Amino acid sequence: MKTLVTGASGFLGRNLLDVLGDDAVALVRSPLASKHAQVMGSPLDPDAWISQAQGVKVLVHAAGMVHHSRRHADEMVRFNIDSSLAMVRAAKALDARLVLVSTSGTVGCFPYATIEADEHSRYAEPLVGRWPYYLSKIRAEEQSRKLAKQLGVSMTVVRPPVLLGPGDTLGRSTTNVARVLNGRLPFIPAGGIAFTDVRDVAQALARLSQKETWRDTYHLPGTTLPLRTFFERVGEVAGIKVDRPDVPTFVVSGLARLGSRVPVKQLPDPVVLEMSTCHWGFKSLWSHDELGYAPRSHRQTLSDTVAWLRESALRN
């Protein structure tokens, strides 16, 4: 059963291609140095490549723009929504099924650490709707589901949290680990983080692509930690002492408001600061039993991430 993967040159896409092996077809803008079959084009314009993808039975839309800022967010919002809708139409044209890779942030963000979202939970739009990336993913989910129903396309949404592990060549997903390694952690907010291993998510997606029937939504949870604990554990596996001060939420929120008015180079983007005061609670009702999803130890993931980032720094 051939599976076409968008975002094939990205962190998750490359791992998924490796797991799928000969069943994989990569949708790419420029040729990859890869043994996998490749189709040239953009997820925004399936009409230009649909004839090359005949025989594909599953589309995994893993392409997306991630930009945690309100500055220059319009292109990201348009891409995340429009590409998802285009892939629904592509699935219809190919008589294929669609896996839309979204994010745990659409439902799993809370002001307290004692709450968790499962596959039946409502969108967290009252909280995350102020952040363009998460709002774009909510709208992509909503509008794609609606169009898929209209066109009779079988579609499921998969929501992983932050992805860690080796191979993040663009440096987008492993930013928080790199902050410790680079000594660029100014302070530690009172929020939390949810993360899992990209390799385990790729395995789950590959199993999902081979299933004959799907549920509407699958969560792929991993480990949830307070930021203090997360940064300390990164420090432990890296051999770095993390001694940055804790900063109360009201102070971080004030810094975010300041940064929204006057950019401060020494501080993360205001959206990143706002997110760092929140908690991310996330679980699944069926991913373990139905997809065999069992993420590895988070310490192993952190150790492998640190090792890869250090090797990458030496190579570059």
TrEMBL record:
GO CC annotation terms, alphabetical: cytoplasm
Q: Where is the NAD-dependent epimerase/dehydratase domain?
A: 4-211
Annotated transmembrane regions = none
Q: Name one GO molecular function term.
A: aldehyde dehydrogenase (NAD+) activity
Q: Name one Pfam family in it.
A: Epimerase
Q: What is this protein called?
A: NAD dependent epimerase/dehydratase family protein
Tell me the organism: Pseudomyxococcus hansupus
